[in-house]
Each structure stands twice: as structure tokens, then as C-alpha cells.
Design brief:
Elements: H1 6-20, E1 22-24, E2 29-35, E3 43-46, H2 47-51, H3 56-61, E4 64-67, E5 74-77, E6 82-85, H4 91-95, E7 102-109, E8 114-123, E9 136-142, E10 150-153, E11 166-171, E12 177-183, E13 189-195, E14 206-215, E15 222-232, E16 240-241, E17 245-251, E18 259-262, E19 265-266, E20 276-280, H5 286-291, E21 292-294, E22 300-303, E23 314-323, E24 330-340, E25 348-354, E26 357-359, E27 367-374, E28 384-387, E29 394-400, E30 403-408, E31 419-428, E32 435-445, E33 453-454, E34 459-464, E35 472-475, E36 478-479, E37 489-493, H6 497-500, E38 503-505, E39 511-514, E40 525-534, E41 541-551, E42 559-562, E43 570-576, E44 584-587, E45 589-591, E46 602-605, E47 614-616, E48 622-625, E49 636-644, E50 652-662, H7 684-718, H8 724-730, E51 735-739, E52 742-746, E53 753-757, H9 780-787, E54 789-790, E55 793-794
Parallel strand pairs: 2-8, 9-15, 17-24, 26-32, 34-41, 43-50
Antiparallel strand pairs: 1-2, 3-6, 4-7, 5-6, 7-8, 10-13, 11-14, 12-13, 14-15, 16-19, 18-22, 20-23, 21-22, 23-24, 25-27, 27-30, 28-31, 29-30, 31-32, 33-36, 35-39, 37-40, 38-39, 40-41, 42-45, 44-48, 46-49, 47-48, 49-50, 51-52, 52-53, 54-55
Length: 798
């Protein structure tokens, strides 16, 4: 059959490759077949199609080929998703004489993480011709050899396998020799020359033959060697081994010099023709000769090189026994050395993919890493079990063969453990077992799963009134176990139009500031909520109640209500000369808008002598006679009474009492209420000046009256529940002053006092059915509800 052209052979190979590839979806792996010796860039298979992945997504998903071999034989065209060869592949270099040659690869695809197993079988092509150890083989045979005698000859070597290996041997025509093939005890093909006709050295001393080996490839390849057979006239007995085949088992890694086996061959001849020496056959590879030493005289085979089961599992070689007779005759035997595996290789862990960061809300079953575990040993020595510490929230899964997945077993909590160090241990089943460990560190990324927590369940703050606007009052503090934006906190106050004018908070550090100066007489207590919110998505928040107490300062002087002054700051009283000690002259009524000790009032007379006729109650304000009136006592007395609170510093007010002593109870001294006549005549200029001052005073008084009327009108409008009869009857005859949170209404008579809480106006039906009495015997802060009465009920407290 004619040899096809190179282009036709390439097309035929590609057709074979396409026909041999397939995808095993049931096992989660892809299997292709490819011919060896294909040019770089040759088509292997369509990965994108077989994986069911869009070609466009290959680039950003990051398809990678993982191989345990140092050489990368394949590459992926990311534009077409086609698997191509990246270099020429030599099957004989990869797998030697192994009947099958498979490359195991791993396909790893990110985003999301997926892994597939890829097997590429390298198919043999007939790229090697059979060859013999040498171009010429020399064999000696006794001329006395009988027909049927066999002469072993070396086989041809062909690295190819299957039909591409040696299939047929052909021997050039000969009347004395014939070629015989057979199967030895190890089921290996052997070839021998069989003597078919007796020899006659005197007729023909040397026979020359040509041995040809032909493989079964297409096209067929062949190799030949020349065989020279020398016919020996003497020494008609060849050495004979005790066994045609020697078999022995040898553990790997045995020390150098260890005896493997001792061969023994005997020769029936005498003298030098019976002395036997042992040699490796010429076709024995040098690697075998470097591993084993053959003692020439004793036939002892010992170890002289490293024996490694992972490199070579068994050795097969031939040994010749030659005598020392003329024209030495050789005897041959086969030696098989089977290497026994020892547990000398620890398992190997190859991490093919790992997630360096895992969110703390990842669900159990999430894949953290993918790895391949292998052991070069065989049997139990090569069976590996992997494990991770049971205390960790991770576990290993073994989906198939030697592949493992590290998955999340239990929920994560970054606030408890921010980083996990996972030690993966692989242990084989050898005796003793060998172990290997690898460490994977996994960072736990934060999610917003913790609300802000305040350092206190509630906050209480105190501030003195009349504070400077902008004063830092306190700091509200909260913590958040989360990190970055999930732990960035901002503070705010609950929406309240009243609070907005009093308090502000720094949104970053939680510092509370007073926006203006507080007045205890207006407000004593504030309650509000402070909210703290993080910057996570979605944000989490918490609230804490805050109480602010304003403390009183002594910033109000006592205000004197009674007795009303009839002449400016002076009040005129009259007592009979017959008045005894303890006679009530007058009662001074006063109040202080402050509270506590700042509103606790005390009365005394300024510049009072020891024998003074008058005294004042320290806490009652009652002015009484301290003794009986004497004749030498004048008829006119002037007292300055001071009202002082107990604040620090104390504030005070004074009132002047003008007291007239009458001769009897009915006598009224009107002269004390009249202006004395002036002896000086008022000039016109003075008259004009007096008229001007009077006019200006009148205008000022009208303005004050209008202003007060407007305030009264506004106050009466806000008091929707005011008793109409009460309001109507007193309209125009009452006035009020604003002090603290109470409205004080004063009548013309000194005893008529009505005081309402401005936050709790009178209700319909309220009326004055008894004279209101204001006493200051108790501290002011305790007397507000005790001193003011409407009917039989206390003033309502709001």
C-alpha cells in the first residue's frame, strides 16, 4: 500500500482524534484522545461545547488547566474554547512501554468556582522502527549439536505498542537454521534459532544470516541485524543453569550490596571447558546493569544502585554463562526481579483553588477550596485519608477518587473569629503511616449583623441654668462589633421641635451641646431619645433614653406683693397708741421665682435697735409691736423691711413702712397722706416743665396700658376653659405679672390675690369662694401647691 502524503496523514490523524473524543457527563469529567507527535496547536477537543459554557464567558471566568506534570502539554484558545496541543507529545517519553498512556488534568473555572476532571489519552503512532541491540550478533555452536538444538537470540526493541510494536520476525533462507518464536514463562515473546540439519565445520565453519523484525504499523517499519554463527569443533557441552527462569522479589530502598539472588550453571566438560563465568547479555539495558551487580565467578547478583518502586516496578534481563574452553559455549537464563513497594512516600496535597475571603453569612456547604491528594506508593501505602480539626467550622468532602473539597460546615462569626487557620492533614494507610499537612488561611469578611450598643442603658445629665450657649453637657457613646462602614456610627436626636432649639448632638462623636442658656423658671426637665445608626446596608440602629435635669441658680430677687405701696416704695399704716405688745401692724407678702433654698425667704428690719418698738417675723413677714407704746415714743415711725432669700449669693428686696400712732382707733391722720404745701411759688417755667413731664408720663402710661391689655388678651385667649363670669367681672380691674410658670393677678384690695399655673388654666366652674391667703412659712419649693387655693382644691399641677 503506498504511503500517504504528509497532509493526508495529518487529516487522517485529526479524523481519528475527533472520532475518539467523548465527554462523560455522568462522572463529571471529559475524556479526549489525541495522537502523539502532532504539531503544536493541533486540535484536541471543544471544551466550551462539551462543558456547555458560552465562549464569551470563558475569558472572565478564568478557565485554567492544572497538571501535576511540570510540562504543560495543552493550552486553551480562549476565543474559541478549543483545547489545543502546546507542544509535540511523545508517548514513549511519557509512558514508555505502558499499554495505555493517559494524562490526568484538572479544569478549574472561577466565578463561580467549578472543577472538572480531564483525561487525555495519548494514542500511539508508528513513529519508531524495530531495532536490535547491534548490527551484528555472533553465536557459537558445536558442530556436534543435534538437530533441534536451539540458539536463543535477542529480540528487537520497538518503543511503540500494540499493532505498532514488532509483530513478525523473518530469517534469511538457510538450510541449517530455522526461526522459532514462542512465549516464555512470563508470557513474553521469545525468538530462537533451531538447528534443522547437522553441522559440518569442515564443510562450512561460519553461517551468516539476516534477521528482520517487522512491526504492524501502517506503513510498516522494520529493522534487521546480521547473525554470524561460528561452528566450534570442540567443547561440545554448553553451561546449563539450574533454572531457565529465576524469579525473586526485592523490597525497594534496600541497602547497597544486598544480595538479590545467586545463579548457578554447570558445564559437563572438564578443565577450562567446564569453568563457568557469568555475564549480562549484551541487550540488557544500562539502567539495569547500573542497578544490579553480577559477580563474574560466583553468579551472585547484588544491589549497586537505588531501587525505587515508583521508578521501576520490575526488572527482566538475561544472563549468559560462558565456559573457558576453546570457542566458548554459552548458556542463558532469564532473571525476573519484582520490586515490592515500601511506604517511603508521604502523601502530596495540591491546592488547585482557594477562596481567601469568605463572608460571615456564608451558608453551610459553601466550597472554600479544591485540592488533589496523591501518594506515589501503591496498595495500602498509597491509600490516603484527609482530615481537618473537628473544632473548626469546616469539613472535607471526597467527591471522587483523590479529589477533595473544603466546605463550610457551621456558620461563621467574624466578631468571634476574624481569621481561620485550617490545617489539612493527609495520612496514608501504610505501616507506619506517613502524613503531610498544608495550611490554608481564610479571612472572614464582615457583614452588618450587629446593631450599635450604647455603653449605658440610659443616660442622666445635669446642667445649671444660665449656662453659656454651646456648653458641652455630656457624651453619648455606643459601640458596634462590625468593621469599616458597618461599624461607622452616627448619632441623632429624636425629632422634636422643642428640643431642636435647646439641644444639639455631634453626629460623629455623640457629644451633646446646649444651644442656648436654660432658664430653670421656664423648664426644669427634658426627656428625649438619642438614636445611633451604622452605615451598613441595610443600616442597623439603636436608641437610648436621655434625661436632662436643669438645676436652679439664685437669679431672681424676692418680689414683694403686700402690702401694696401707696406712695411709691412706702406703705402707710396706722396703729392706736393703746396697742399692746404683739399688735399686728402689717403683713408683708413676697415670693421668689427661684426654688429650693434660693426661694426660702427671711424677713428682717434694717437698722433695728434693741428697744425698737417694732419687730418682723423671720419667716412670716408679720410686723408686730415688740412692746407697749410709751409716751416718749414718737407718733411717726419709718421701718425698712428687707426680704432676703437663702441663695448663694443671697438676693434681697426692701419695702418701707410708714407707721402713724393715733390717739384712738377711729382717728385718721389724713395729713400723712397729703402733700405738704410748699411755700415756694411755682414759676411759669417750672409749670411748663411739670406739664411736659406729666404729658410724657401720660403717653408712657397709655403705652404700658395698651401693652398690658394685649398680653392680657392673649393670655385670656389661651385660657379656653376660663370661667366667663370670673373673667368678665374682673376685666379691667385686675393686672398680672409673669413670674416663673405662674400668672399672678392682683386686685385693688391688698387681700385679693389670684394665682394660676400658666400651663394649667382654670377650668369651667372654677370660682373663688374663699379669700386666698399666701403664706411663706415653708420653703417656697414646698409651698407652691400648699399656699394657693381655688375653692377647696389645690391648684392643679400639670
Amino acid at each position: 500500500m503506498p504511503c500517504p502524503s504528509r497532509s493526508r496523514r495529518g487529516a487522517w490523524r485529526l479524523l481519528c482524534l475527533l472520532c475518539c473524543s467523548f465527554f462523560d457527563a455522568a462522572r463529571g469529567q471529559i475524556r479526549y484522545s489525541v495522537l502523539e507527535e502532532l504539531d503544536r496547536g493541533s486540535f484536541v477537543g471543544n471544551l466550551a461545547k462539551d462543558l456547555g459554557i458560552d465562549v464569551i464567558s470563558l475569558n472572565y471566568r478564568g478557565l485554567k488547566i492544572m497538571s501535576r506534570s511540570r510540562r504543560q502539554h495543552f493550552q486553551v484558545n480562549m476565543n474559541s474554547g478549543v483545547l489545543l496541543t502546546s507542544e509535540k507529545i511523545d508517548r514513549e517519553e511519557l509512558c514508555a512501554e505502558s499499554p495505555s498512556c493517559t494524562l490526568n488534568l484538572e479544569l478549574v473555572i472561577d466565578s463561580p468556582l467549578e472543577m472538572y476532571r480531564l483525561e487525555v489519552e495519548v494514542l500511539d503512532v508508528n513513529d519508531h522502527a524495530p531495532r536490535f541491540a547491534g548490527n551484528e550478533v555472533t553465536i557459537s555452536i558445536l558442530e556436534s549439536a543435534i538437530p533441534g538444538s536451539k540458539l536463543p537470540i535477542g529480540k528487537a526493541i520497538d518503543p511503540d505498542i500494540g499493532t505498532n510494536a514488532v509483530q513478525v520476525y523473518k530469517l534469511s533462507p538457510s538450510e541449517h537454521f530455522n526461526l522459532t518464536t514462542g512465549i516464555n514463562s512470563k508470557r513474553k515473546k521469545s525468538i530462537e534459532l533451531t538447528l534443522t540439519k547437522p553441522l559440518d565445520r569442515e564443510v562450512q565453519a561460519v553461517h551468516t544470516l539476516v534477521l528482520t523484525a517487522i512491526d504492524g504499523g501502517n506503513p510498516k517499519r522494520s529493522g534487521s541485524t546480521n547473525i554470524t554463527i561460528n561452528v566450534i569443533d570442540t567443547n561440545d557441552n554448553a553451561p546449563v543453569f539450574d533454572h531457565t527462569v529465576y524469579s525473586v522479589k526485592l523490597p525497594e530502598n534496600v541497602p547497597l550490596g544486598t544480595t538479590v539472588i545467586q545463579l548457578n550453571a554447570t558445564d559437563l566438560d572438564e578443565g577450562p571447558s567446564g569453568e563457568v563465568h557469568y555475564f549480562f547479555e549484551k541487550l540488557v539495558p544500562m539502567s539495569t546493569q547500573n542497578s544490579f551487580k553480577l559477580e563474574e565467578t560466583t553468579g551472585v547478583i547484588s544491589v549497586q544502585g537505588r531501587i525505587d518502586f515508583e521508578d521501576i516496578k520490575f526488572y527482566e534481563f538475561s544472563v549468559e554463562a560462558l565456559d573457558k574452553g576453546p570457542y566458548s559455549v554459552a548458556g542463558r537464563c532469564q532473571v525476573f526481579v519484582e520490586i515490592i513497594d515500601e511506604n517511603d512516600n508521604a502523601p502530596e496535597i495540591t491546592v488547585t483553588s482557594v477562596s481567601e475571603s469568605v463572608p460571615e453569612d456564608a451558608k453551610p456547604g459553601t466550597v472554600i477550596a479544591l485540592m488533589i491528594v496523591s501518594d506515589k506508593d501503591s496498595g495500602d501505602n498509597g491509600q490516603v485519608v484527609c482530615s481537618v480539626p473537628a473544632a473548626l467550622p469546616f469539613a472535607l468532602q471526597n467527591p471522587y477518587n483523590n479529589h477533595y473539597s473544603l466546605i463550610l460546615k457551621d456558620p461563621l462569626d467574624r466578631e468571634t473569629t476574624a481569621e481561620h487557620t485550617i490545617i489539612i492533614t493527609a495520612m496514608d494507610k501504610g505501616s507506619p503511616p506517613l502524613t503531610t499537612s498544608t495550611t490554608i488561611k481564610v479571612q472572614v469578611s464582615d457583614v452588618n449583623d450587629n446593631s450599635p450598643k450604647f455603653t449605658q442603658p440610659a443616660y442622666t445629665m445635669h446642667v445649671m441654668e444660665n449656662n453659656v450657649p454651646g456648653t458641652h453637657m455630656s457624651t453619648i457613646s455606643a459601640t458596634d462589633l462590625d468593621t469599616k462602614e458597618n461599624g461607622y456610627l452616627t448619632y441623632s436626636i429624636s425629632a422634636n421641635t422643642t428640643l431642636d432649639s435647646f439641644i444639639s448632638i455631634n453626629s460623629e462623636n455623640g457629644k451633646l451641646f446646649a444651644l442656648k442658656s436654660f432658664d430653670y423658671e421656664e423648664i426644669q426637665h427634658l426627656e428625649f431619645l438619642v438614636h445611633c445608626k451604622d452605615a451598613g446596608v441595610p443600616p442597623l440602629s439603636s436608641s437610648v433614653p436621655v434625661q436632662l435635669f436643669i438645676h436652679d441658680q439664685n437669679d431672681n430677687a424676692p418680689a414683694i406683693l403686700l402690702p401694696p405701696s401707696q406712695t411709691g416704695s412706702t406703705s402707710i399704716e396706722a396703729i392706736p397708741r393703746s396697742a399692746e405688745a404683739g399688735y399686728l401692724v402689717s403683713k408683708i407678702r413676697a415670693f421668689d421665682a427661684d426654688s429650693g433654698y434660693n426661694a426660702w425667704l427671711a424677713y428682717d428690719i434694717i437698722q433695728s435697735r434693741k428697744d425698737s418698738l417694732f419687730k418682723v417675723g423671720l419667716s412670716t413677714g408679720e410686723v408686730r409691736t415688740s412692746r407697749s407704746i410709751r409716751d416718749q415714743d414718737g407718733s411717726h415711725h419709718r421701718l425698712v423691711v428687707r426680704v432676703k432669700d437663702h441663695g448663694e449669693p443671697a438676693l434681697s428686696s426692701t419695702v418701707t413702712l410708714s407707721i402713724a400712732i393715733t390717739e384712738n382707733d377711729k382717728e385718721i391722720h389724713n395729713e400723712y397722706f397729703k402733700h405738704p404745701k410748699s411755700d415756694i411759688t411755682i414759676s411759669n417755667v417750672n409749670l411748663y416743665l411739670v406739664i411736659s413731664i406729666a404729658f410724657i408720663s401720660f403717653i408712657f402710661l397709655v403705652t404700658i396700658i395698651i401693652f398690658v391689655a394685649l398680653k392680657i388678651y392673649r393670655a385670656s385667649s389661651s385660657m379656653a376653659g376660663c370661667d366667663q363670669a370670673l373673667c368678665e367681672n374682673n376685666r379691667g380691674s385686675w393686672y398680672y405679672t409673669q413670674s416663673n410658670s405662674y400668672k399672678v393677678y392682683l386686685g385693688k384690695a391688698s387681700q385679693d390675690i389670684l394665682l394660676f399655673n400658666s400651663q394649667c388654666p382654670p377650668q369651667p366652674g372654677d370660682s373663688i369662694n374663699k379669700r386666698l391667703t399666701l403664706t411663706t412659712e415653708a420653703p417656697a419649693q414646698q409651698s407652691v401647691d400648699d399656699l394657693l387655693m381655688i375653692g377647696d382644691n389645690k391648684v392643679r399641677s400639670c
